[in-house]
């Protein structure tokens, strides 16, 4: 315990030294060491008195601190001795063998060596063991064994305690602990302690160190005070009263000579000092000294700055007719405000220049913003509106823009510059008296500012419309209303591009706005010049766009063909930013079948429209061969590959065909069967009669021209009343949106649209397309119909020539049932020729089908792929005249191939068509 007590006291010594050092650094004269310090202390100055007082305080604090450390060390040593003694006594008393040894025949022999070892290990001076009667059984002093110990009665009674013991054999700090057996009965006592002599010896050894630390702290504080005193002497440079007075006079002269106002106020707001410049700038009276700053009428902001305790830097305030830059700093010790020092600079002229620079910067910023906001679209009217929107209200209260009609149509500007159409009007208020957008504006009076601007080719300024008379000449009543509304200033600027007048821009200012100045005219001319370029670009684009749209619409179907299989509606919407290559077509096929086509050409513009026309023409030509959808797309793909291959070796600048998409579908109204094939195109949507919308899974091949993949045909069976919706990607794709969102929107619109194709087209155009589509869109909606089963007659014909006559007779009866007796002869002739050719030159099975719709169709199919051809037979030939007769009686005829075999068909018109002269035909055949 004495060892721990010594460590605590050693660590506790530095704090008083640190405190003494801190206090010793306060200003004061240095100690009387050397002649200079002696000379300083010989004068009864305040610095010397502060130094002596500081040294005395430090000395007292060091002494008190040293005494406190000594007492604290003694107290800590005693407490440590108690704790160590108690721990040693409890450890020995509670050891398992102590109680047994006390009951043994010779406890001293057992406990004496154990107590000695335990005392040495625990760092205590003694461990004494007593029996239950207080007699010593083991003790470091063997002469005391057998004697009775003092003051252990409480321990014999079972109480553990510590105490400062005074008596025999020595004064000590001891702990007394009872020893109990298993039944908690006291069988002995253990006493352990540390003698007072040892504690005092430890403290005596620490005392010199404490005194040395105190002396060191005192010396350090004295040295610090001396250093501070010497620093003060150096800063004053040893000046006497005369020198200090002269220095004050110099400072005062400088203070009043500088061209910056200096004002010093006290903590109560009274003026302590004001130089000449401050008096001039603030217009202070002669008796300003000792008066409050609130009495000078400086204004609330300036007064607040001079009375505030917060510093300010370059705060610009108005005092009278001057703008002053004010800097303030508080005066006070330790941050406590005891006054304020303020300086003033006259920045009136600088502020004027800064204001002009700010105005110029604002105008440049305005023109930059105008450059980014005008011409965002290639639309003439929208560009004119953007010009008006930019100028109001930053440039004017009302802006009107008039353009030539030829410019609005996208044509070259004409020389008729005195007749313009008001295209845009923007105002900051409401209820203006000016002519509305759409009116024709005529400039017929030569003295008006508008006509003068057109004649000169530059802006004309009318700063005050109240005093000007020439602008009223054309419309005196309108001028009067404008003045009553509050319009008072005008700038008219001709809108010119490439040296040609496109229109006129008028800037008007009304009540609450200042009149136009010459600087505003320059800004207005620059603004209109930038807008003129954008409007001219939009005009040129409009012309090209209109030309491309016209070309594209001329290449699209001008009307839907008449047919009975489908009820069809269509839409085409060109993109706002440019014409694309989307297209559609409806192609009637033999047998009342109908082909539906949609496609999309890569790119935009005039070239895309031309390319679309080439592709549509190719599809029309291939469809005349009555090919299956996959075969037609295969031929189309080969054609695209050849054309693009040829274009790479020429200077042709047409858009490439490769990458175009196409969907080709053929619908048969007899059985509701629909065959579809697609090349890189989106699948169509099918709306069932109950309104269910599906997107069927159909085979997909790469876009046209890519090659390397075969085309496949998908099959659909469409109930009557179903809607087949074919579309291009412009209907469902928008920038910044996933195509799945567009497909979901399409599905929801189709589910809610009306049942007719026209209603469906209208809903899709309104609900799925954005306001300004970035891509063109083509849409084709077809509602299915089925041919009445009573108008379809089918016969399976045996592969025998004798069956021809029977089939011909059955066909005649069918025609009679349909009320077509007048067509019996021609139909039987056509059927006889076609059926005879099938039996003679074809292969089984042979089938005949008659279809009645807008026309009468006769179809003969067989299992052979050999196609007959029309030829003129020689006079010596026995045959070869059958197809010639068929071509004369039929409106059209042809051959189409099926999965197995072919079908030869002939179509006859119904109604008042005249049939050929039979006798003349036979005479011609006989030649």
Layout of strands and helices, then pairs:
Layout: H1 2-12, H2 14-24, H3 34-41, H4 46-93, H5 96-102, H6 107-122, E1 126-131, E2 136-138, H7 153-156, E3 161-165, E4 172-180, E5 186-195, H8 196-236, H9 241-257, E6 261-266, E7 271-274, H10 276-282, H11 300-307, E8 312-319, E9 322-331, E10 339-346, H12 348-373, H13 380-391, E11 398-403, H14 405-408, E12 419-427, E13 440-442, H15 449-456, E14 460-462, H16 476-485, E15 489-497, E16 500-509, H17 518-555, E17 566-573, E18 583-588, E19 594-600, H18 606-623, H19 629-647, E20 661-668, E21 673-679, E22 685-687, E23 693-694, E24 700-701, E25 714-717, E26 723-727, H20 739-752, H21 757-767, E27 777-784, E28 792-797, H22 803-817, H23 824-841, E29 846-852, E30 855-862, H24 882-889, E31 892-897, E32 902-909, H25 918-926
Parallel strand pairs: 21-24
Antiparallel strand pairs: 1-2, 1-5, 3-4, 4-5, 6-7, 6-10, 8-9, 9-10, 11-12, 11-16, 12-13, 14-15, 15-16, 17-27, 18-19, 19-20, 20-21, 21-25, 22-23, 22-26, 26-27, 28-29, 29-30, 30-32, 31-32
Helix pairs in contact: 1-4, 1-8, 2-4, 2-8, 4-6, 4-8, 12-13, 12-17, 13-17, 17-18, 18-19, 20-21, 22-23, 23-24
């Amino acid at each position: 315990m004495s060892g721990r007590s010594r460590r605590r006291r050693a660590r506790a010594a530095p704090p008083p030294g640190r405190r003494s050092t801190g206090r010793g650094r306060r200003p004061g004269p240095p100690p009387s060491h050397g002649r200079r310090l002696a000379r300083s202390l010989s004068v009864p100055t305040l610095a010397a008195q502060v130094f002596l007082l500081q040294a005395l305080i430090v000395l007292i604090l060091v002494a008190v601190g040293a005494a406190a450390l000594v007492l604290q060390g003694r107290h800590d040593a005693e407490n440590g001795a108690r704790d160590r003694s108690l721990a040693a006594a409890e450890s020995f008393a509670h050891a398992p063998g102590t109680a047994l040894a006390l009951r043994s025949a010779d406890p001293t022999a057992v406990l004496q060596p154990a107590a000695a070892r335990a005392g040495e290990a625990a760092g205590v001076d003694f461990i004494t063991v007593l029996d239950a009667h207080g007699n010593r059984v083991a003790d470091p002093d063997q002469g005391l064994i057998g004697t009775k110990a003092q003051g252990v009665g409480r321990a014999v009674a079972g109480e553990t305690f510590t105490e400062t013991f005074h008596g025999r054999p020595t004064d000590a700090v001891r702990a007394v602990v009872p020893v109990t057996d298993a039944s908690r009965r006291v069988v002995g006592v253990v006493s352990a302690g540390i003698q007072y002599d040892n504690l005092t010896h430890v403290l005596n050894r620490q005392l010199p160190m404490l005194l040395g630390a105190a002396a060191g702290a005192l010396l350090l504080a004295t040295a610090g005070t001396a250093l501070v005193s010497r620093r003060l002497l150096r800063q004053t440079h040893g000046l006497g009263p005369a020198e200090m007075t002269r220095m004050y006079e110099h400072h005062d002269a400088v203070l009043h000579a500088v061209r910056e106002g200096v004002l010093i106020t006290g903590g109560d707001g009274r003026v302590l000092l004001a130089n000449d410049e401050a008096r001039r700038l603030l217009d202070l009276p002669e008796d300003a000294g000792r008066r409050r700053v609130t009495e000078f009428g400086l204004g609330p902001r300036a007064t607040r700055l001079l009375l505030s305790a917060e510093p300010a830097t370059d705060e610009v305030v108005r005092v009278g007719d001057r703008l002053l830059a004010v800097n303030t700093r508080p005066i006070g010790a330790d941050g406590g405000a005891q006054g304020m020092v303020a300086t003033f600079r006259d920045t009136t002229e600088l502020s004027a220049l800064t204001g002009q620079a700010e105005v110029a910067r604002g105008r440049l910023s305005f023109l930059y913003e105008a450059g980014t906001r005008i011409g965002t679209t290639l639309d003439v009217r929208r560009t004119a509106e953007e010009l008006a929107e930019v100028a109001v209200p930053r440039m004017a209260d009302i802006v009107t823009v008039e353009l030539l009609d030829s410019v609005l149509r996208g044509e070259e500007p004409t020389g008729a510059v005195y007749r313009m159409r008001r295209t845009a009007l923007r105002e900051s208020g409401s209820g203006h008296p000016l002519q509305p957008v759409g009116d024709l504006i005529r400039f017929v009076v030569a003295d008006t500012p508008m006509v003068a601007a057109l004649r000169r080719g530059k802006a004309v300024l009318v700063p005050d419309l109240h005093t000007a008379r020439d602008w009223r000449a054309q419309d005196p009543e309108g001028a009067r209303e404008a003045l009553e509304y509050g319009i008072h200033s005008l700038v008219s600027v001709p809108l010119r591009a490439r040296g040609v007048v496109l229109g006129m821009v008028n800037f008007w200012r009304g009540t609450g706005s200042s009149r136009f100045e010459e600087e505003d005219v320059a800004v207005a001319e620059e603004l209109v010049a930038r807008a003129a370029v954008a409007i001219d670009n939009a005009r040129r684009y409009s012309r090209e766009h209109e030309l491309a749209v016209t070309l594209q619409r001329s290449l699209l179907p001008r009307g839907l063909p008449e047919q009975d299989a489908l009820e069809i509606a269509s839409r085409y919407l060109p993109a706002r930013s440019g014409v694309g290559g989307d297209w559609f077509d409806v192609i009637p096929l033999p047998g009342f079948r109908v082909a539906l086509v949609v496609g999309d050409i890569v790119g935009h513009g005039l070239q895309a429209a031309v390319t679309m026309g080439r592709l549509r023409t190719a599809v029309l030509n291939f469809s005349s061969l009555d090919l299956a959808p996959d075969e037609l797309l295969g031929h189309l793909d080969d054609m695209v590959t050849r054309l693009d291959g040829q274009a790479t070796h020429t200077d042709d600048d047409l858009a490439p065909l490769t990458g175009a998409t196409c969907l080709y579908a053929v619908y048969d109204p007899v059985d509701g069967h629909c065959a579809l094939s697609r090349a890189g195109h989106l699948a169509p949507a099918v709306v069932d009669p109950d309104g269910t919308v599906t997107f069927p899974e159909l085979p997909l091949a790469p876009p046209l021209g890519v090659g390397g993949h075969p085309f496949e045909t998908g099959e659909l069976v469409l109930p009557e009343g179903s809607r087949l919706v074919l579309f291009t990607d412009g209907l469902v794709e928008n920038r910044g949106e996933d195509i799945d969102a567009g497909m979901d929107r399409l599905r929801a619109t189709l589910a809610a649209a009306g049942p007719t194709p026209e209603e469906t087209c209208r809903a899709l155009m309104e609900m799925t397309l954005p306001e300004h589509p970035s891509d063109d869109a083509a849409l084709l909606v077809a509602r299915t119909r089925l041919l009445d089963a009573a108008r379809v007659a089918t016969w399976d014909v045996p592969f025998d020539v004798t069956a021809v006559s029977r089939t011909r007779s059955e066909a005649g009866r069918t025609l009679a049932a349909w009320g077509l007796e007048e067509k019996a002869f021609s139909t039987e002739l056509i059927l006889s020729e076609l059926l005879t050719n099938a039996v003679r030159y074809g292969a089984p099975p042979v089938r005949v089908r008659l279809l009645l719709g807008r026309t009468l169709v006769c179809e003969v199919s067989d299992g052979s792929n050999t196609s007959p051809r029309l030829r003129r037979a020689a006079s010596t030939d026995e045959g070869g005249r059958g197809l010639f007769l068929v071509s004369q009686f039929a409106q059209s005829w042809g051959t189409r191939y099926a999965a197995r075999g072919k079908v030869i068909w002939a179509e006859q018109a119904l109604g008042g068509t005249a049939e050929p002269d039979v006798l003349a035909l036979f005479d011609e055949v006989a030649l």
